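Q: For a teaching handout, I want to show students what a protein-ligand complex looks like in token form. Below are the inputs, and the small molecule is adenosine-5-diphosphoribose. Please produce the holo structure.
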Amino acid sequence: MFELIKDQTKNIKKIVFVTGAGISQESGIPTFRGKEGLWRNYDPMKLATIDAFYDNPKLVWEWYNERRRNILEARPNQGHKAIAELEKYAKVVVLTQNIDGLHQKAGSSEVLELHGSIIKIKCSVCDFKDEMVAGIFEIPPLCKCGNILRPDVVWFGESLPPDVWQRAMILASQCDLMIIAGTSLVVSPANTLPIYAKQNNAVLIEINPENTEMSSEMDLVIRNTGANALPKFVSLFKED
Ligand code: APR
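A: Here is the structure, written as tokens, with adenosine-5-diphosphoribose included.
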């Protein structure tokens, strides 16, 4: 499976993972664009834009509450755990589009949440930010400044947190190996991260049961799931 890099593992010092919803699919969290994907059943323009939020904040909150319940019950799978274990053998950074916190739960120590976190909230006006606390009964909840609170996630048409994105670009352009796992690479700017790595002559590996927007740019494509493929990848480093 990983013959291409079998002999190179010794030289691989900096590994960057770019992950998406597919890496959490085997933890029971639906993807967005897959067969049972969320955007097959829900209209993202009614639930994941700032206009949708102002049109109907109650609907948007109820939808995120339902997703949060599902996510808080989920457990990291073998894919998340393998990425965390890899820290024994190399410097590993995870640039994730996921808002589920499962990489951190698996033990990954450096995770950049490009699209925010479903367990965080922020005020839609002032700079108040906080972790989601139990017992928020009022929907939509109000900030102490009187304006409505919103999930601290990045919606369509919104920019990524500038400090997080800046750091992600730098890390991507300094890695030796980039593994793109469980993302369709249709959403920008996250889908430009492989380009930064390529400019640094990093090896690009894609782990995905299906073709993606950038499969042809990859040095190696593994048509398999994250939970199946990633433990095999880590075993390469164990053999050394
Ligand atoms: N292991 C690896 N990959 C998988 C698995 C699996 N078990 N199951 C599905 N996949 C792949 C699919 O083939 C698909 O290419 O994961 C990808 C999921 O793609 P999307 O559903 O488009 O999710 P993602 O790429 O994370 O979406 C990016 O879009 O909706 C917005 O903000 C949201 O962060 C999200 C962004």
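A: Two things your students might notice: The radius of gyration is 18 Å. Residues 20-23, 25-26, 31-34, 37, 97, 115, 181-184, 186-187, 207-210, 212, 225-226 surround adenosine-5-diphosphoribose (CB under 6 Å).
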